Amino acid sequence: MMVVGMAEVRVNDKGPTQKQYRVLNPDGTLVVNAPVRMPADLVVQALRWMLLSRMYDEHAIAMRREGRWGRYPPLVGQEAAVVGTMLALDPKQDWLVPQYRELVACVHHGHPLERITAHYMGKGAHSRVPDGIKLVPLQVALAAQLQHAAGLAWGLRLQGRPGVVMTFIGDGGSSEGDFHEALNAAGVTKAPVVFVLQNNQWAISTPRSMQSAATSLSHRAAGYGLPGIEVDGNDLLAMYDVAVDAVQRAQRGEGPTLIEAVTYRMSLHNTTDDPSKYLDMEAFEEAKQRDPIDRVTAYLSGLGRWDGNRQQEMKTKLQAEIDEAVEKAIGFPGPQPADAYENVYAQPPERMQRQLAALLARSQS
To answer: What is the pTM of this model?
Structure first.
């Protein structure tokens, strides 16, 4: 694992300082002697994904406020942690196992944006992951997907198939028993899986300081015999570096890695949340100065690859892309009562067939 490009940065709003892996400073300048492995063209592509995520979040929150969508968990402030890691994957052979905040990674992996939008409109029949896409559906039950990720990766290893599994979890979810069981299983089996822990400082309304006495959540990896690394989660270049290293390590048969992306949730936990009730506004204002999108645009501007006109042009195209996806999703037929019986059993038991028949009879009367 790389150790160059380190800088002293704060672990959280209350905790001590320690070394985190960083390549790009908050002002968009490079850390002294830090290598740059991410080509400028790829950084531009990454910025596009980050802007798509931020703009879609804004649209989704507005739609929820209008009562047109279900509950929605935005990624605002954490875009570098997701985009930087997802770009280390090859969607043709690698698997993605998300929690519920990694919408942009799902789109990058091949899940159409209109289908994801249909999910939030309650149109389950039209939101399924298309055949051939190496993606497990979004998981709302905290950390339950980690077991699936470890098992999927172990299965790939046993069958001698190529491919790495990447999965995501939050700091709150990392306190669940599933997290520890999955890391233990992955470590024992040397499963090719990368665990990305997005430490956004909040488990809904519980601050990081009240979740664990550990100075770094990445230290938990040592207990299961796998490497853990703490990264500045608002640094796109750093996140990409460690993700590439972790994926390559898994490909070599050396087993799993835990990446802790230290970032900050700059929006709602989800659209049922009111963070004004518990947020530390001083820490929040400080976090805004480390906005991952601002950091990338400053870096590209310094390279002569970005300016206000280019950003506006890109945002106009992205808005059109979002609008098109939403219109397609609106055009899908609405949910039907019988949908609840689909994709439950390969061979529905007799009692379920009777229930469905009775339901259909009532709906037609």
So the answer is: 0.90
Q: Coil, helix or strand for 301? A: helix
Residue 195 and residue 243 in contact, taking contact as beta carbons nearer than 8 Å: no
Q: What are phi and psi of 132, to 5 degrees?
A: 90, -10
For this structure, is 265 an active site residue?
A: yes
Nearest of 31, 29, 11 to residue 20 by alpha carbon: 11
- Of these residues, 64, 111, 220, 269, which one is catalytic? 269
Contact in structure between 154 and 138 (CB atoms under 8 Å) = no
The Cα–Cα gap between 173 and 273 comes to 17
Residue tagged active-site, from 64, 208, 249, 265: 265
Catalytic residue among 65, 71, 161, 278: 278
The structure tokens 């949730």 sit at 265
Relative orientation angle of helices 292-302 and 236-251, to the nearest 10 degrees: 100
Q: For the chain, what are the domain ranges?
A: 37-334
Q: Which of 231, 252, 224, 260 is nearest to 150 (CA)?
A: 224
- pLDDT, tens digit, 9 for 90 and up, residues 224-233: 999 999 999 9
Q: pLDDT band at residue 1, thresholds of 50, 70 and 90?
A: very low
Q: What is the CATH number of domain 37-334?
A: 3.40.50.970
CB distance 227 to 219 below 8 Å: no
Alpha helices of the chain — where are they, by DSSP H?
Answer: 40-65, 79-86, 103-108, 113-120, 144-159, 177-189, 236-251, 281-288, 292-302, 308-331, 350-364
For the beta carbon of residue 334, count every other beta carbon within 10 angstroms.
11
- Taking a C-beta distance cutoff of 8 angstroms, is the pair 39, 57 a contact? no
CA-CA distance, 39 to 305, in Å (whole number)?
12
pLDDT in tens, 147-203: 999 999 999 999 999 999 999 999 998 999 999 999 999 999 999 999 999 998 888
Distance CA 125, CA 31 (A): 48
Chain Cα centroid distance, residue 150 = 17
CA dihedral sign of residues 207, 59, 25, 227: positive
351 is catalytic: no
278 is catalytic: yes
321-361 pLDDT per residue, tens: 999 999 999 999 988 888 888 878 889 999 999 999 998 88
